[in-house]
Amino acid sequence: MNDLWSVRLKKYQQILLRYSKFVLNDHFVLALLFFTGGLGLGYSNFLKSLPSTIVWWSRPLIVIILVLVLQLGSLVSLLEKPDTVFLLPLENKMFFFLKYAFRYSFSAGVIIQSLCFLVAVPFLGRGIHLTIIEIFLLWLTQLLLKALYLERLLLSGYNDYFDRWWIKLLFEFIGPLVVLLVAVYLSGWVALLVVFSTLIVVHWQLRKAVVHYVFRWNRMLQLEDHRLRSLYRFINLFTDVPQIKGKVYRFKLLDTYLPQIKTPKNIFKFLYWRSLVRKGEYSSLYLRLTLLGCTILMFISNSILALLLTALFLYLIGFQLFPLYHDYDDIVFMHIYPLQEGKQLINFRQVLRTLLVITSIFLFGASIIAGHSIVELLEIAGIIILMIVFLTGNFLTKRAVKNT
Amino acid sequence: MTLKVSNLVGGYSQIPVLKNVSFEVHTGQVVGLIGLNGAGKSTTINHVIGLLTPQSGKITIDGITLQENPESYKSKIAYIPEIPVLYQELTLKEHIDLTIMAYNLEREKAWVRAQRLLKTFRLANKLEWFPANFSKGMKQKVMIVCAFLTEAKLYVIDEPFLGLDPLATRDLLNLIESERQRGAAVLMSTHVLSTAQEYCNYFVLLHQGKVRIQGTFAELREAYQNQQADLTEIYLGLTQEVTEHE
């Protein structure tokens, strides 16, 4: 079982390593840098603006944030579908395999939780006046809550009782919420003690379940599949993941707004809009970047930085949408139907322009909220127009032709 | 309408799969492209529909090659692929709309025809569904509906019977027959030889990338020197002969 786990883990880490090259590409790192920079600046300004007394909302806020952070990271079991056939005879030994899985998942959890916690430390000190000891206790509590979160998943692999919605709610939201509230309002020691004793009880339950219940293959596979799917979906924003064939959603209400077919001239317009609305591959990227851009720009009062960021976001969005042009290359009918050449590019340009204009309106709105002067706003409008002309002009033609 | 394939040499790489393939398909003909797996049927079809470019030789429809006038060449063809190809994010209705738009068909008339075809293939109540989630057989039916909707001059059909239930197979054969009578031509690749024998009126036997023999069924029997033989016997006999000679 040890061997099996290490082989699986190695394979999994190789996949992650390979994809991380695509995820951490130049564009994204640049955007991330700006984002963390902007966020850091905002955070430090926010800390400075806090009064010396404790504000009423600071404790609930940190509790909610910690509960949300707790949701990061699931059980990495690395089970695969054929296991139900090939590992069936090893069923009573599966627990050893799962122990490795738990150890790995918990280590990953400790890292993620600690990093997030580290960010919260300045606020814990300045916002709600916790001492070093109290912060340390809160950190331990958070880690144990994560262990509890993972133990429940493991337990549900044996005992379906722990799969009920209210148990899930209790372990993942209500329980942590109560415990963390106790920690910040009453005493860190009490909270820690409560989580620790719960953990012991749950662990004892798990030991019992392993002996008394049959391993629920399907449930654990489903869990792993779900986890991998969300991981791949994230990676799919940056590069093609063969395992993922993006799910298609109809969004029937939007049907009336989609272009209807009139002439062969706008056949690609018809296709591109449907791909955007229903496939989510590009639209999720578009929506996220637009939202991110707006959120950041709202807090940027420096006009030079605002200009740069506006240009950067338009470039990022436009550039990341370019592959949509080739979305239909694999469909044999696009080569067999009697289509006029050149219409594809014209259609794509129209679609891209519309999308960029919509984003621009939002980015401009965010700049207005940020309180720039009229002249600065005019500058921003100028850079928006320049960027749209640039992205939908020759640059697009060259890019599109280059990749065909 | 005449499809003329002359001295076609071609394939996927520098090494040709097809060696000097020549045949013709005329109006009112159902031509069966017969051969074992890997004989070159699909390769020939990919050349005809323009997915592959000939290394030498020529393919014309009414005297025009694809290179000379792609739009006119392609507007005469409707194609049914061996493995159904569908748009993931389009409903069945939108697939039909797209076909109508691509071939610039008259909308009302085309939809009347579409409704009739949908009814025949029992898809009429699935217009709002995503065909990408259908079973293999039902996807194939969508391909058939979209192709026959166009009233093309030449139908190119690759292994049409795989995955179809007996009822749909019969309906497809009836459809091919009625289109033939309307004046369309059909080029159909298959290795379901018994069906081919019954429904095709001209045969092109491919073997190892070459045309082994071509002609009507009577002509094939003549060449095989056995008036009782069926297509399977003729095919196996002729191809084995070639293999033994080598």
From TrEMBL, chain A:
- Which branch of life, at top level? Bacteria
Gene Ontology CC terms = membrane
**Which Pfam families does this entry report, sorted A to Z?**
EcsB
Ranges annotated as spanning the membrane: 21-41, 61-79, 100-121, 127-145, 165-183, 306-325, 351-371, 377-396
Name used for this protein in its record: Protein ecsB
- Supply the alphabetized keyword list: Membrane, Transmembrane, Transmembrane helix
TrEMBL record, chain B:
Entries under SMART domains matching the protein: AAA
Using the record's annotation, list all stretches that form the ABC transporter domain: 3-233
**Keyword set, alphabetical order:** ATP-binding, Nucleotide-binding, Transport
Q: Name one GO molecular function term.
A: ATP binding
Fetch the InterPro entries from UniProt.
AAA+_ATPase, ABC_transporter-like_ATP-bd, ABC_transporter-like_CS, ABC_Transporter_VariousFunc, P-loop_NTPase
What Gene3D superfamilies does UniProt report for this protein, alphabetically?
P-loop containing nucleotide triphosphate hydrolases
Q: What is the protein's given name?
A: ABC transporter, ATP-binding protein
Q: Origin organism of this chain?
A: Liquorilactobacillus capillatus DSM 19910
